[in-house]
């Protein structure tokens, strides 16, 4: 179906919205958000495509905000899951010993930690990323007997009170309805501009007279998923790790969105010669969109008392099954990372070519991010929203991020087929063209 015909079909969908969305409008809370940006009644999804109830296809470059790194309904993971359910495998187990959990631990040790020469204890937290962050902050405070945590400008770590305290967005923080304490914000790498080393600034602020309490931990995203796809450099992260050691604090890396291969490697800090004290994982840990979060703890920091952090749904055995399958099927050999690197190279080239055209209309535009977590910074949230909306009209789901929503953000499945990746990027280029080229004409630059 051509882009034009697809757009016509989507116009038909739009005329049906009043009936299709009646129950949501009448009975669901106003807090819903993504459905407002992508107003379609979805019926099914497979691989890198989602389908409306009218069977109109959308290429998905959103992938559940990065929770579906292997696409929708990945066949080998689905087969393992259905077989487990068919034999009445344990579904819910709190933290009982189960065979599904045992096999996941073995697979994670054999396919992820041992090949990378990493030694961590595995803590299964509540099923959401924010709960894993809460656990990490609690443990850091317990280990160090300090209360202050240093987080960074434009950070996003979750929406429950502890993790929200470490989230920088004023809009999200206002939702707490109360003062948020226990966190000091410091400038992220590059936040103060070129030539300004924020590690020097942080070090000075922690010195005598700086007025900043000694921290229990530094909590950092190596790639800021919601903060605009800003990244830390290798040297900056190494110096942050050294600063944490020097002042007796823990280094916590929030790999919720950028982990599990999203950055191009399983962990986003690989190749940076840094071993965090705690690594927070979630989103694509199950590989199938099933709720699953886990913290990796340096053994010397595993000072928890039994049940000191718990949760009813910390034993999602269905997620253990699909998570184990993903590790064995995709990460057991270097072949998957090699293939992913090839696709990332293609994405890099296409975005570089697109950027040259975009800069005719938006000179300060830039490509941000790494791996399959990249996007185009436009410096204008309204403009980025128009590109996202036009992409959706053409058949591509792609979100925006950044403090003002000024970055068009791409999160394709790591397993996306070459032809679908190419088609999705073609749609993205068309969306940029439809939004920006008229702007270029109006500027007299065409």
Share of residues in helices: 40-55%
- The pLDDT mean sits at 94
- How would you characterize the largest beta sheet? 7 strands, mixed
What's the overall geometry? globular
What does this molecule look like?
The chain is globular. The C terminus is likely disordered. It is of the alpha/beta class. A hairpin with a 2-residue loop joins strand 1 and strand 2. Helix 6 packs antiparallel against helix 13 and helix 7 runs parallel beside helix 13. A seven-stranded mixed β-sheet has the order 4-10-9-8-7-5-6. It folds into two domains: 172 residues, Aspartate Aminotransferase, domain 1 (Alpha-Beta Complex), CATH 3.90.1150.10; 256 residues, Aspartate Aminotransferase, domain 2. 42% of the residues lie in helices and 14% in strands.
Provide a brief overview of the structure:
The chain is built from 16 helices and 15 strands.
How does the SSE layout of this entry go?
Blueprint: H1 3-15, H2 17-20, H3 22-27, H4 34-37, E1 42-46, E2 49-52, E3 57-60, H5 63-66, H6 75-86, H7 99-113, E4 121-124, H8 129-144, E5 149-152, H9 161-165, H10 170-174, E6 183-186, H11 198-206, E7 217-220, H12 234-246, E8 250-254, E9 278-281, E10 294-297, H13 317-330, H14 335-361, E11 366-370, E12 373-377, H15 381-394, E13 396-397, E14 399-401, E15 407-410, H16 418-442
Parallel strand pairs: 3-13, 5-6, 5-7, 7-8, 8-9
Antiparallel strand pairs: 1-2, 2-3, 4-10, 9-10, 11-12, 12-15, 14-15
